[in-house]
Batch of 2 targets.
Target 1
Amino acid sequence: MKQNPASLSERIAISEKVTVFAPATVANVIAGFDVLGFAVEELGDEVSVAFTNGGLVTLDDVTGDGGFLPHEAERNIASLMVSQYIDQLRQRIRSGDLHTSRVSIVPESGLGVSVRLQKGLPIGSGLGSSSASIAAALMAINELFGAPLSIDELIPLAMEGERITCGTAHPDNVVPALLGGLILIRSKDPLDLVPVSYPKGLYCSILHPEIEILTRDARKALPEHIELAQYVRQSAHLAGMILGFETGNLELLRKSMQDEIVEPIRAKMIPGFYKMKEAALREGAIGFGISGSGPSLFALSKTKDCASSILEAIQTVAEKEGISSTATLTRISSRGARKVSI
Ligand code: HSE
């Protein structure tokens, strides 16, 4: 449905609404700090957007956040992303970089958008909670305008969203949240993304201990420089992991899922981390580590039974440490942010 730009305000279909679900993501995947991440099944956030005549981006509902997120449109990342998207659309149309024939409605001054966010992910969990909101918001508003921007064009905006929420524009959550699958970010600038294939039968056990670790703080704790010998070993682990995923060589994957740079520092923020790691590996995990900046932990395994035993074992350790936790048995998902009908 292409509209005449001149007649915009009167012709906005107020009832037009798009809802997008974006998945939780496991960033770093142990040896791939800031360059590797995968989407998971089922867990995620939903953002709905609809045109209004109000001339503003409004945040009309936030649910599932336990009252922890800002409910003001200019402070919540979902509505903020919608505003930034509209600004960029306007700029690109004005500069002639994007022709109005590519948008279903031109974002003129009378145009407003109502945003609703339904959090399905715990905040500050290490499961890409802000990324899921960012990816869902960007894809939803793009769809509402008739998808004038490609997913690749949404990625820089999504990375900017990460910068706003945690101080750095790391792409290893937002990219798999938008695209799905396991993705290697070979280069951030210029952006070069490489989907990595993986054995489809793998299970992913996720434990979310109820402690808070802010990505911003977890990044500040890291060293600015590392030793050459560490770099050499870590490169070998990452190369072995990628090859293990691609070829389905689980033994290579098992040997390579190691991180001697970031994990030892962040493990100190998670009580019982090494006991959990030992328990997970004893139960047959191919690899066990911190999801993103934590506190969530993840393990990959070959069978559902193994994935359940791992969850039981690590949850027991967490309990002994006096930490409540939520366990999720899931898989790597090939699907990223997508429209849902509600
Ligand atoms: N690569 C990022 C980090 C992911 O580890 O800080 C944050 O979820």
Note: The two ends are 21 Å apart (CA to CA).
Target 2
Amino acid sequence: MARRNTAMLADGTLRVGTHITHSEDLQTEVPPSVLLVDDDEVNLMVTALALRDRGFFVTEVSSGEAALEHLRQQVPDIVVLDAMMPGLNGFDTCLQMRSIPGLEHVPVLMLTGLDDDESISHAYRVGATDFFVKSPQWRLLDGRIRYLLRASSTRQELLRSRARLARAQDLARMGSFEWHSVPASWEGRLDLSREALRVFGLPHGSSLGLRQLIRMVPRAERHGILRMLVDLRTHHSVLATDVGMDLPDGRRRVVHVEAEPERLAASGAVGYTGVVQDVTDRRTAEDKIRHLANFDALTGLPNRRQLLWRTERALEHARRHGHLCALLLIDLDRFKVINDTLGHAAGDELLTEVARRLRSCVRHSDQVMESSVEAGSSRAYRTLEAVGRLGGDEFVALLPEVATEHDAERVATRILEAMRLPIHVAGQECFVTASVGVALFPRDGQTVLDLMRNSDMAMYAAKAGGRNATAVYVPSLSSSGRERLELETALHKALERQELVLHYQPKVDVRAARMVGAEALMRWQRGGRLVPPGEFIPLAEESGLIVPMSQWALSEAARQVKVWHERFGFSDAIAVNLPSRLFERPELVDHIRECTAVAQVPLRSIQLEITETGLMKDLQGVIPALHRLNDVGVRISIDDFGTGYSSLAYLTVLPISELKIDGSFVRDLGLTPQSAAVVTAIIALARSLGLSVVAEGVENLRQMEVLHRLGCTVMQGYLFSRPMPPDEIERWLQQTVLPRKAPWISAVEGGDQTEASLSRGVAGPAR
Ligand code: C2E
Ligand code: CA
Ligand code: CA
């Protein structure tokens, strides 16, 4: 047979020259292969010739057995099979062939006798694709074969693309379904593709009704889904939703369902075709992103963005329902100190614990169902209630509905109480307090920003009042423009009319029991009243009046040094408080030079105090002045140390000479371990930097003794003397210090005999 094939092939090739077009086709395309089966040798040869002539690659066999034998080795594109053959006839050959794997779909053209109806239907029954009545009509045969080949390749393409689709759907965890209504059935008929079944965690071939499917939806979502389905059936709308599913294997997945209505021509009934897709992973990623964008990474609380959003929503609801809404701004007192002394890791730990405690003070909910909030009907807006972190040590509590101001205050008090127990971080007990500012909608502001600003103002009022307190916003906190203008004008005149005076508070070295300097504190004699600096310095700073006022203070202090020097040999420095903006002015050094020259005192008799906050705020602008001042011998003191935001690294390079421990730490000495820890840290820091350290606000012996024990000996405070007019300072020295009658002197002497007696020789102002 092989030889004959070759001969036929050779024969076929000979004809190539006469069929140029075919030969061109043959070059670009593989010729379709035909297995031709006929027991009649002549028929076989003639048909084969005709087919080769038309561009087919023909293999001839002369029996059914030989055909099957060949088919097992090689699969042709089509089988042309004579029906009538001795031995295995065409029908049986076809039947057997169909049972061979891989041959189920190879097209079979059965050659039958003319008008043999029985043969034709028999041919179809055994799996033939088509029949052809034997005749030498080669063109017809050619056409029929090509038609079958086209149909077969279309079919194969379809199969391939279906397989590809199934694979793609599998990869995308996607499947399709059809849902048709069935008369008298609520559920209708649901057909799920194999891939769709897989999405629902079911094996191929399982049958699943809508009812079972709904049962897989978690209880909380079920009602919503049912309502959606009912809607769908009444309005024939498009469906697109994500729904949770508890799969039979216990996994909880999120499935995206999308379906379009489809009117069925015959019944006019509406069906749905759609896809289902497992979108759990995408949803998890989305949730993660949403969480990152809206929640603080450290504490897990809602962040600024989320808080603004929630407050915005809460205000909408409050407006609609006419109720009050409260915003509480919570700021930790002196968190910075803890952060700087114990390190950032400890600071983070502390913030996390604070966050946890704050959460317990309100009905905090992380999850806000946006849809339910938008729905607006229920009291869903209550889910907006939360504590969030604005950043740093600033937190906010949002109360979407309060009955009265007292409700908000009660929560604020609860917050302060929640801080009462110490927090353990870095192996230490820390006591944290907070200041809380409260603003109410609509009374204290119509917008989120107004409420934020006003609660902030109230919070500052709480801090100014001594911290660890709550303050509700009152309009006077932001004094009206007119009031301010009046005050500003009056202040202008005060300067001209010389209504400003300096009072002095001694700095005392308790070990030596002597005054080692004084701080000048400004007062305003307005009418009969002595106005404290807290009431006019801030305005002076805002209006710029602080510049001439400070210049006046410098020259007045220099003059005082001279007076005291002449009266009792004062040879220390008077410290003047300057705002940071003065350090930024190039003429500061010259001005001090001039003041001291006029008063005829050395430059070092003026000392400058700049607050830690002011220093850090304008660090770059201030540094050059610090260096120039230091060069000429004017010493710089960092005021209110511990309350600002010092980067300790800077302190090592700044030309400063003194740290003043803020009075707030001194106040709690002997009461909370934390204040002692802070003071110890500041003293250690000052030592390591070669700076002197002064404690402010010392009011009683207990504080003095603790400070003394911790190694701080220079102090200021009511215990020794209030700020006084200059004459009274002299009297104080004469009547208290010199005769060594004050209780603080005996206290130190009692506890520290040798030191005190040693220093007595140089003690006292008159030298
Ligand atoms: P400061 O520089 O921290 O001044 C210390 C404040 O604590 C003074 O308040 C002083 O009277 C008060 N004080 C002193 N000893 C004690 C004590 O034992 N207990 C308590 N509770 N307080 C004590 P004062 O005089 O009301 O000044 C307040 C602030 O005003 C000063 O804080 C300073 O920042 C500013 N200030 C005062 N005078 C001037 C000035 O001439 N120029 C500038 N720019 N600011 C000034
Ligand atoms: Ca000061
Ligand atoms: Ca101070």
Note: The domain at 494-755 is CATH 3.20.20.450 (TIM Barrel).
